[in-house]
Amino acid sequence: MKTLFSIAVVLSLLAGCDREKRSYKDQSPYVEEAPNKVVQSDLHPGMMPPPASTEKNVYSESAYDVAEGQKLFQQYNCSGCHFHGGGGIGPPLMDSDWIYGSDPQNIRATILEGRPNGMPSFRGKIADHQVWEIVAYVRSLSGLLPKDISPGRSDEMSLGTTPQQTHPQYPKKEQPGLNREEKPK
Amino acid sequence: MYLAFRPIFVFVLLAAFISGCNSRSHTSSAQEPPHGGVMQPYAGKLPPDDGQWTMPAKDYGAYRYSQMEQINTSNAKDLKLAFTFSTGTVNGLEAAPLVVNNTMYIITSFPNFLYALDLTKAGAPMKWAYDPKPVASAKGVACCDLVNRGGSYYNGKIIYATLDGYAIAVDANDGHEVWKTKVGDINIGETITMAAQVVKDKVLVGNSGGEFGVRGWIIALNADTGKIVWKAYNTGPDKDVLIGPRFKPFYDMDKGKDLGVSSWNPDQWKIGGGNVWGWISYDPDLNIVYHGTGNPGPWNPDQRPGDNKWTSGIFARDADTGEALWYYQWSPHDMHDYDGINEQILLDLPIDGKIRKVLVRPERNGYIYVLDRTTGEVLSATPYGHITTSTGVDLKTGRLQMNEALKPTPGKVVHGACPASPGVKDWNPSAFSPKTGLLYLPHNNLCMDWESVETGYIAGTPYVGADVKMYPGPGGNGGVFSAWDPINKKEVWHFDDRFPVWSGALATAGNVVFYGTMDGWFIARDAKDGHELWRFKTGSGIIGQPITYKGPDGKQYVAILSGVGGWAGAIVTGGLDVRDPTAALGFANATAELPKYTNKGGMLYVFALP
After folding, report:
1. DSSP character for A25?
2. What is the C-alpha to C-alpha distance for residues B534 and A87, in angstroms, rounded to an integer?
């Protein structure tokens, strides 16, 4: 019984030691880790913007990259959720809203890591240079690329660029005001 | 101009050709609903009515009808708001509230909250809330907004399913979780959106995922324990489909061994769709459950030759064992995303001088079918909206006669295919009034352009293969609310709406019918002539299902969830960009103006007479 008691005392002392133990290892203000991590926030504590990512977009945003990216966008079923930029299951990509950032590195991170609200992670599924090509195409959708390297013509059916609200064969009737028509038949 | 009209010309030629070959004659391949039906009180048996609302359609026969008549055609104009409740959600609300033991239960869209409201107290304060905490990644495999269509009450429990694939029973008194069973897997694209339906001591749920190459199934769980009792797939070998010696389909096209395999190219049935995300009816006398099956995957029909059994059809199954008893395929080798999952109203109707046990199905492909529910024989199939994709149903073979001119083929854009993919009517259920004998149909008036594109299967990503653009059909109105005479197969009256009418309908013995519009109006009409009795503007568009119940004070209340969304309202909830007309599988184009009329946000509205 006495032995047990002694062990308990020693154990509790040891635990106490651990509790008081402090680590000074990871407190350097000069953090060198992961310089290529993508920054997600516009808030920079200490008024000091974090160093820019050194990760390179290995393929420049050329017309070729965009065209390749457009094909891959279809092949990897990106178009199944984002359609041709208008969105559906996933958010639109042709507008000016960027939930997770519009920098090439941000978009690449979105594709590779996924996002918690439904964006799947394609890490290990798409070759790196192809990811960059998809990035280029995605950026072209919202006009972030110069016009001369954006696709001049889309591969999908020419559905027109403005919403068409009528059946081509049946013109729309006048629908006055906000009200629906009252026309019993 | 020439180009624009050429398809019509081809189409007329072809239609003429087809009608020449067919035993059924068609003056035009563009079909319109026949008008001039009559009211005829229903003579069949009615389910008992205790003033509660304990399951999705109130009764097993899917009438969505209440025998209460306090609110009638003379006083409906006096309806006033009784209380409201915010759901704290922003996605589309499609569920019917449940009312049991003076408590109202609200099931929301993602994240699938369940609220209990105490109807005995002023303002119906919240008794408890249950949060199932579904994983947010499930949102990435939900085809058409993040809806939930409701649940059922059984033996002290509220039972429903979550988007991320769980069937859950929650204690109706205190909100604690009684059981939780994982039935779906989001990593193969499975979600659950349908209203869990209790049948006797079991609860039935099925999976969604027709746009993700998900193999469809329906599962029966023990409603007390959550243990799986039977599971039936809708593609694959007979043993998986629970097809055995008792299976007796009416038509030859549905007879044969392992059609769920042989009507596909090798292995395609494994990713072939046929999901169960709609409505289940139950006939207690026959002990049969009826459920539809969804579209085959992918949408691109050229990638899946064959009839693609058992997709886009209807099964009658033994309620205890799940064994298939008969099956009928509405749309063999579906080419337009015509899911076959709509409601089936079980009626005993006089047809050709005899009372027949029938099942009435307003189907997505544009026909109201009347089937003998004991055999699966099609007694009639009548257009209830504008149809160009097919020319009718051959009653000898049971087969839908397709308009070859509007068949999607690679490299060709098909124009003017009506109805569009959401059909003349989608999931949003109709109501039947025994008093008028009429069916009240909230529905669509949509057509589409379609181009098939090749798609590859990647598990957990969309598997569609079509660029679609939808737009309102003839007249330019996107939606219609109509009354239908199921005996004479004619439309009695209809009212157009700017947008698809994506809400359910409710019929009452006071001869008042209710429904909501996507721009937020909750409307009461006279069941007889359809004239408007009352309307109330809710905060968001309405795609929910109205219900009515008897409050603890003996008064009749009417409840509706307001909160736009669903496939039709994805443009609002998803903030979609309509410069891309293919957004939201092409639906965004048809409802492009909706964001000018309404905004997202969920709220319960309950009304009563002063």
Report:
1. T
2. 37
| B310 upstream amide cis, omega within 30 of 0 | yes
- The pLDDT of residue B483 is 98
Residue B567 falls inside a structural domain: no
Is B138 in Cβ contact with A120 (below 8 Å)? no
List CB contacts of B331: < 8 A, sequence separation 6 or more.
B312, B313, B338, B340, B365, B400
**Which residues, at least 6 apart from B89, have a Cβ–Cβ distance to it below 8 Å?**
B108, B109, B110, B111, B113, B563, B602
Residue B161 DSSP SS3:
strand
Helix (H, G, I), strand (E, B) or coil at A41: coil
In a domain, B17, yes or no: yes
The residue segments making up the domain with residue B592 are 2-558+582-608
Give the integer Cα–Cα distance in Å for B163 and B193.
6
Name the amino acid, one letter, at B298: P
**Side-chain half-sphere exposure of A141, counting CA atoms within 13 A:** 28
Whether residue A96 lies within 8 A of chain B, CB to CB, comes out as no
Parts of chain B with a pLDDT under 70: 1-29
Asked if residue A123 belongs to a domain, the reply is: yes
Residue B386 within any structural domain of the chain = yes
Name the packing angle between helices A128-141 and A104-113 (round to 10°): 120
**Inter-residue contact B391 to B357 (CB < 8 Å):** no
Residue B283 known to be catalytic: no
- pLDDT (tens digit, 9 = 90+) per residue, B437-473? 999 999 999 999 999 999 999 999 999 999 999 999 9
Is B140–A97 a contact, with Cβ atoms under 8 angstroms apart?
Answer: no
d(CA B389, CA B404): 8
Q: Do B477 and A160 touch (CB under 8 A)?
A: no
Distance of alpha carbon B319 from alpha carbon B17, whole angstroms: 45
Give the CB-side neighbour count of residue B555, counting CA atoms within 13 A.
14
CB B580 within 8 A of CB B67: no
Q: Is residue A160 part of a domain?
A: no
Torsion of CA B291, B297, B299, B305, to 10 degrees: -110
Check residue B539 and give left, alpha or beta (phi > 0: left; psi -120 to 50: alpha).
alpha
Inter-chain residue contact B211 with A77, CB threshold 8 Å: no
As for how many domains chain A has, the answer is 1
> What is the pLDDT of chain B when averaged over all its residues?
95
B451 catalytic residue (yes or no)? no
Partner residue facing B495 (CB), from A95, A162, A182: A182
Q: How many domains does chain B divide into?
A: 1
DSSP 8-state assignment for residue B137: G
**Cβ(B328)–Cβ(B399) under 8 Å?**
no
CA distance B203 to chain A (A): 29
A161 in a domain, yes or no? no
Known catalytic membership, residue B337 = yes
Which of B573, B577, B589, B596 is the mutation pick for testing A, counting most A CBs within 10 A?
B577
Q: How much is the pLDDT for B235? A: 98
Best CA proximity match to B132, nearest among B163, B88, B95: B163
Contact call for residues B337 and B290 (beta carbons, < 8 A): no
Residue A7 lies in a domain: no
Per residue in B386-440, pLDDT (tens digit) is 999 999 999 999 999 999 999 998 889 999 999 999 999 999 999 999 999 999 9
- What is the radius of gyration, based on Cα positions, of chain B? 22
CATH code, domain carrying B552:
2.140.10.10
Q: Which two tokens stand for residue B194?
A: 């349908």
Q: Is B10 helix (H, G, I), strand (E, B) or coil?
A: helix
The CATH number assigned to the domain holding A69 equals: 1.10.760.10
Neighbours of B410 (CB within 10 A): 12
Nearest neighbour of A94 by CB, restricted to B464, B580, B593: B580
Instruction: Give me the domain span that covers residue A124.
Output: 63-149
Phi, psi of B270 (to 5 degrees): -70, -20
CA B138 from centroid of its chain's CA atoms: 22
